[in-house]
Design goal:
Elements lengths: L1 E11 L10 E16 L4 E6 L3 E6 H19 L14 H9 L6 E7 L9 H12 L6 H16 L4 H9 L2 E5 L2 E5 L7 E5 L7 H12 L4 H18 L2 H17 L5 H12 L3 E4 L12 E5 L5 H8 L4 E2 L8 E2 L3
Parallel strand pairs: 3-5
Antiparallel strand pairs: 1-2, 1-12, 2-5, 2-6, 3-4, 6-7, 8-10, 8-11, 9-10
Helix pairs in contact: 1-2, 2-3, 2-4, 3-4, 4-5, 7-8
Keywords: ATP-binding, Cytoplasm, Kinase, Lipid biosynthesis, Lipid metabolism, Magnesium, Nucleotide-binding, Transferase
Subcellular location: Cytoplasm
Family: Belongs to the GHMP kinase family. Mevalonate kinase subfamily.
Length: 327
């Protein structure tokens, strides 16, 4: 058995979506994949190249879910920190198997080319792939909630944007906690630069923004940019898209989540006729800000990469969300 799920990138609306503004995201071609190979043991062995191996007796899978739920309750009541809920990162996979009612002995192999900790929904993608592999065939809206429910153990709260993008594929809009799939395609000219893993976590950055900007009128400006960007992408209006991406980055600069080193690169892209913005929470300190989206229609990308000494990868959308695939 094998299933996979795409990663995601936020095109517009990071941070502002917390305050009721819309956000749009797209599923991307990078995938998380979950394989299952049955055997005659009484255990499940979970293997990940980045996280090692965890072997659990079948009876411990269901018991482990109960224990994790109790610890999450303690977290919700302020007794534990979120990183104390799971004592091994692969126990999140075991939790997903228990959630799905999966009781077959064998080996679960997790592979992913989605960068971790950089705003691409890697946790949600892995969870979605494991749930599909384990036989979860819920309708889309219910499947999104299942992904979020499992992901809460890792982040304290499952992301609507991440879960919706990896479950549905394509482009989505999230507003007031509800996700809708958009019948849009980005077209050519979109690139991604990985500026490195931020020093501050998503939770830390979101909390800092809340402390400093929760009551700001700036969220109306973010909302207007996102709505206009949806229309401009639909109309293929390249000048407008470029202007809106740059305006989005200016607003992100204003709330203090763009590291100076990243700001320097995005400013130079703007001066060279393109547009660029961070995708995701950004960072409060350090030099890295996670994934950076660049819009460069008709621009000399090779020349720009040489000038800025960065690597720009073409953004490839994934039209299909989490699904089972043939071995």
């Amino acid at each position: 058995m094998k299933a996979q799920a795409p990663g995601k990138l936020i095109l517009s609306g990071e941070h502002s979506v917390v305050y009721g503004a819309p956000a749009i995201a797209t599923a991307v071609a990078q995938q998380a994949t979950a394989f299952f190979v049955p055997n005659n043991s009484d255990c499940i062995e979970i293997v990940s190249a980045g996280l090692g191996t965890l072997t659990l007796p079948l009876v411990d899978i269901a018991n482990g879910k109960l224990a994790a739920d109790e610890k999450f309750s303690d977290f919700s009541n302020g007794v534990l920190a979120i990183n104390q809920v799971l004592d091994h990162p692969l126990k999140l996979i075991a939790y997903c198997l228990a959630y799905a009612g999966f009781e077959q002995p064998g080996r679960v192999l997790i592979e992913s080319d989605i960068p971790t900790g950089s705003g691409m929904g890697s946790s949600a993608a892995v969870i979605a792939a494991v749930l599909r592999m384990a036989g979860v065939k819920e309708p889309a809206e219910q499947f999104v909630q299942s992904i979020r429910y499992c992901e809460r153990l890792q982040h304290g709260r499952g992301s609507v944007i991440d879960a919706s993008a990896v479950a549905l594929g394509g482009m989505i809009k999230v507003e007031s906690g509800k996700a809708d799939k958009l019948n849009l395609s980005l077209g050519e000219g979109w690139y991604v630069w990985n500026s490195g893993q931020p020093e501050s976590s998503t939770g830390q950055t979101v909390a800092w923004v809340s402390d400093h900007h929760a009551d700001s009128a700036i969220w109306k400006d973010f909302s207007a940019v996102t709505r206009e960007l949806i229309d401009s992408i639909g109309n293929g209006d390249h000048p407008s898209i470029r202007n809106l991406v740059n305006e989005n980055q200016r607003l992100l600069n204003n709330i203090g989540v763009v590291p100076e080193a990243v700001m320097d690169v995005t400013d130079k892209i703007y001066q060279m006729g393109g547009a660029a913005k961070i995708c995701g929470a950004g960072a409060l300190n350090g030099h890295a800000g996670g994934q950076v989206l660049a819009y460069l229609p008709g621009e000399g990308v090779d020349h720009l990469q040489d000038q800025l000494m960065i690597s720009l990868a073409p953004l490839k959308q994934a039209s299909i969300g989490a699904s089972c695939v043939d071995d």
